[in-house]
Amino acid sequence: MFWQSWAHIPENINPVAFIIGPIRVHWYGLMYAAAFFVVYSLVLYRIKRESLSYKKETIVDFMFLALACLFVGGRLGYVLFYNLPYFLANPISIISPFDFSHGIHYTGIYGMSFHGALIGVFLSFVYYCRKHKINLWRFIDLFVPAIPLGYTFGRIGNFLNGELYGRVTTAPWGMYFPLDESHQLRHPSQLYEAFFEGIVLFIILWSLRKLKVFDGFVTTMYLIGYGTARFFVEFFRQPDVQLGFVLGPFTMGQILCSVMIVTGIAVLIGHRIKSQIKVHKHSGGVR
After folding, report:
1. Band of pLDDT at residue 21, cut at 50, 70 and 90
2. Which pLDDT does position 45 carry in this prediction?
3. Which of helix, strand or coil describes residue 20?
4. How far apart (Å, rounded) are the C-alpha atoms in residues 166 and 188?
5. How far is it, in rounded angstroms, from Cα 230 to Cα 78?
6. 61-100 burial by CB neighbour count: b if 16+ within 10 A, else e?
7. Which residues are 123's β-sheet partners?
8. What's 91's DSSP letter?
């Protein structure tokens, strides 16, 4: 009885939280707001408890810039990584909520890429730190431990929206999603991602946040940690219908996560080599 009720939870969720006049407020949007607030609160907590030399105004100013870059990067990332042929044929659809392929139909602006959003946010860090003469990697390391917990709310938003569901399964914890036209039992992969890429990664990075290995160390661990968690969860997530599998059994998400993992490992190896060279030069000078 429990598993039967569990399986139908997504079908009983209204993606619209409430309506104010003509405005429909979706749970997905509220989850984004919650994510923003959680990251903001945790960053301020760190500044206060760890006596870090950043002002509250700096954090607020930057986060609004980062939020704008997140949406722009996420949208452009989806266009480039996940549906480029369609958007080349229909460029207005990148910013238009209407589909003109078969008449005029309102579809809303759909499609966001995590990796595109990541690039957008990184560029916002680069721009802001250069403009205000702030150490880039220390500033990123300030935010990174809090980001996975905020990301958790984003994936819960996907679940409440009934989107980005998993592959077909016979597991007792499988669920039926209203957007799945085949109406098959599927992995609730959004919840897997919320747990592993969100909560578990948050616990790991939050425990590492005070380590002074090198500027950018926590960011490097985030690249490796998120990339690894997402890579494996992708085996349970339904590939995008317009792409399917990109390279053998691997999806576009896994390819992009592999780049994250390799980049993170390369940074660690590069730092190790650089440290050994410094030690060698220092010991040579002593003799």
Report:
1. confident
2. 97
3. strand
4. 6
5. 17
6. ebbebbbebbeebbbbbbbebbbeeebeeeeebeeeeeee
7. none
8. G
User: How much is the average pLDDT of 243-256?
Assistant: 94
SS3 97: coil
Amino acid letter for position 142:
L
Domain boundaries, the chain: 2-286
Whole-angstrom distance, CA of residue 26 vs CA of residue 28:
5
- The pTM of this model reads 0.91
Q: Is pLDDT of 82 > 80? A: yes
Q: What is the DSSP letter of 182?
A: T
Q: How do residues 101-126 score in pLDDT, each as one tens digit?
A: 666 665 556 688 999 999 999 999 99
Cβ neighbors of 252 (< 8 A, separation 6 or more) are 81, 82, 239, 240, 243, 246
Find out whether 157 and 32 touch, Cβ atoms under 8 Å.
yes
Stretch 65-91: mean pLDDT: 91
Q: What percent of the chain has pLDDT over 70?
A: 92
Distance, in Å, from the CA atom of 209 to the CA atom of 47, rounded to the nearest integer, reads 12
Please name the helix (run of DSSP H) or strand (run of DSSP E) that holds residue 98, with its range, or none: strand 98-99
Helix runs in the chain, H state only: 2-7, 27-49, 56-82, 84-89, 114-132, 136-143, 147-160, 189-193, 201-208, 217-233, 252-286
pLDDT of residue 242: 85
d(CA 181, CA 179): 6
